[in-house]
Amino acid sequence: MRVWAIANQKGGVGKTTTTLALGRGLAMRGQRVLLMDLDPHSSLTRAFGLPAEPAPSGVLDLFDQPTAELGPLVRETGIDNLSFVAAQTALATLERRSATQPGLGMALANALARGGQDYDYVLFDCPPTLGLLMVNALAAADRVIIPTQTEPLALHGLNGMCRTVDMIERSRRRPLPASVLPTLHDKRTRTGNDTLRQMQETHGDRVWDDAIPNDTRICSVDELVKPLSAGQYPGRGLSAYRRALEWLLGCDRVQMEQAA
Fold first, then answer.
1. How many Cβ atoms sit within 10 Å of the Cβ of residue 70?
2. What rounded mean pLDDT belongs to the chain?
3. What is the number of domains present in the chain?
4. pTM to 2 decimals?
5. CATH, residue 94
6. Which terminus in the chain has less CB density within 10 A, N or C?
């Protein structure tokens, strides 16, 4: 099992779209994929048609009951090989609870250790804030993927996220590779191209040498949650995500070879 955390401390960079697109691509390859929605806004959960109210069972149960089993919380998506665990709005209360309830920092890692054996990949859709949920995801992850808009203000969020990854890596004392995925790119604009170049110059091999373009076909998530057929990557955006997935899988192969 490989665990990827899709994370950025800045909102609006395409985290949920990236989680869905990469999960979809892995499922098309025959991999058994579990998506976990860690964001109280529940965008990924709603993408699969599950309303926020009444509150569904989901991620919060793993924090409420430290020995809760993952299996009963998993929902099918209608896409072969792709399942998900729902978010609940009450996840926003976890920060207050963490001050008085010890042991929450490894809740996700412990849940996967107990019940993650049925999956080849687990993808965390993280909230856009550095707190208990993101720290849980980074503590459990084998790789963090940082979607980042190609616009100047997004560079500050990227720099902060890279510092967070380095801090978590030191704390857990094992590697946490970071892969930066440029998103929402408009190659017609000088600002977008300059920002992409600066991102690549500053962060080097961490950054994909291409970018996910703006594509209205994936602005709404309808294309991302449709049942799949072989070779189906409609639109520029999903085609770019297919190439990005190839890059990420290559990064993982290198990481595992180095570890061996």
1. 24
2. 91
3. 1
4. 0.94
5. 3.40.50.300
6. C
